[in-house]
Amino acid sequence: MQLSTPGVSRTSSMSRKEIGEKNQPEELVKRILKASSSTLFTNQTKAIIWGLQQKAVQGMLDFDFVCSRKSPSVAAMVYPFSADHKQKFYWGHKEIFIPVYAKMSDAMARHTDADVMISFASLRSAEESTVDALQYEQIRTIAIIAEGIPENTTRKLNNLAREKHVTMIGPATVGGIKPGCFKIGNTGGMMDNILASKLYRPGSVAYVSKSGGMSNELNNIISRSSDGVYEGIAIGGDRYPGTTFMDHINRYESDAAVKIIIVLGEVGGIDEYEICDAIKSKKLKKPVIAWCIGTCSTMFSSEVQFGHAGACANQENETSAAKNAALSDAGAHVPTSFDQLHEVIRTVYTDLVDQGVIIEQEEVPPPTVPMDYSWARELGLIRKPSSFMSSISDERGQELLYAGMPISKVFQEDIGIGGVLSLLWFQRRLPKYACKFFEHCLMMTADHGPAVSGAHNTIVCARAGKDLVSCLTSGLLTIGDRFGGALDGAARQFSAAYDKGMLPNEFVNDMRKQHKLIMGIGHRVKSINNPDKRVVILKDFVKASFPSTPLLDFALEVEKVTTSKKPNLILNVDGLIGVAFVDLLRGCGSFTNEEAQEYVDIGALNAIFVLGRSMGFIGHYLDQFRLKQGLYRHPWDDISYVLPENYS
After folding, report:
1. What is the pTM of this model?
2. Is 308 a catalytic residue?
3. Which is catalytic among the residues 165, 248, 308, 620?
4. What's the pLDDT at 100?
């Protein structure tokens, strides 16, 4: 069986001089030296991450910090689908930036100290990103996380990595970890598991596993049964992993810091028999503890495909039971079941401690890594006052809610724009006549021709070539007491006089004594003899639909007093909407008097005019662009130039 390691062993200790004496080309010398070390990762290792994996990167940085590394292990990220930019992460209590590059070449050129590439590319783009990374001499190790890469593609990548003397971990792997030094992506799990498994400092036990999920279990078992993990690699569950068990076992055998080697195999494949041969031939001298999971496969009458692509026994010697027996016969320490694995580890470890092979070190507490706010909140450990509150809508669930009403129900019940306003402005369902009143008001106030100040401003702005929002804002900014803003004022004045029990004549006289205009009274063109059709239509609707109209009746009596003095001092549309709105709030049964008054005070009535007139302003904006009107300049003959006679 051909191994995926280079022809020259990665554990070789040949010097540059010895290699040079063999007249090797300089490029090959570099590759052999690159592949000769038994150490994949140190506390100086730097990695380039392919993909925007913020959670995985933050996990790596937190691991670095708890390991007391001097600098982050992530040098940069590569993401071809965005422009070059920076991503913010935490380094302990501080915030740091990590650059993101659109091109692999830029990342490699600017971070020449990075010798690991961790690929979070999908199964569709993993090949391209891996081939790209293999072109750079600085890369010594590549981890491919993606599952489901076609086997033919994987074999091509394996061959290319072998030619380049690059160690490839994966595909279909969580990666690996070297406590106190470096971890790949999400290996080791959350910070609480890393701390519980003491992965922040090296132990004496190195392991290699097919399963990434089971490697986390191994971390836990080893930490409770020995002085902890020295290094752990999950080679991946595919049929053709980039590296095999023996690739990493050979490294562990040549590393003096490794005292115990653990192998966690599984049903399918025959790689475990190479371990048996190495033990028998004395190439592997350190204690080996091994177990192949999937022993239940013999209980089935036919071959069973377990979770991994390679986890299927196609012949007897690929079953877990056969491999466990072979490992035991070769001299490996094999438990009777996975449940007994921790006992075997404890026994072997204790023997080595007693022999003085392992010298236990004093435990040093790691630095404290702050818990992320989102995680702490999810665990219920903290509470924080909200930056702001909202009580009218919620988009977080299965569907949008308007004041608690699902958007689907809004349409099913056909509540209309008036019903939507009742939910979003008043947080409740109002009677149908109230919703219809809102819609009537919007139609009445939608536009009043191009000559009024708001429409005029919108038109001038549009003819200057400005955008829709700018033109609409230009028109809306004219709304106030003099234009369109009389609804609130009329509601306040009329309701205050009515509540005080004033007679209509008393109210008019009182306002005259205060030298104040009565808001909602008066029109430039219309009069008692030439009524405003909008007022007539809306008044008839209110009288016919509202349960009571005391404030409207009072306003109509005031109109009789004012028109007796001057025929154009009529109750205009602003005044009618204002007083009718108060009658609605007070008489519909949905509000207390205090709530009704609060809506008047906070400007809810003017909102009707603003919303309605926005439709007209937008119409004028579209009209000017449709008519292709040029820049507006006011004619000179319509301006009275009145200059001072003496400017000194």
Report:
1. 0.68
2. yes
3. 308
4. 98
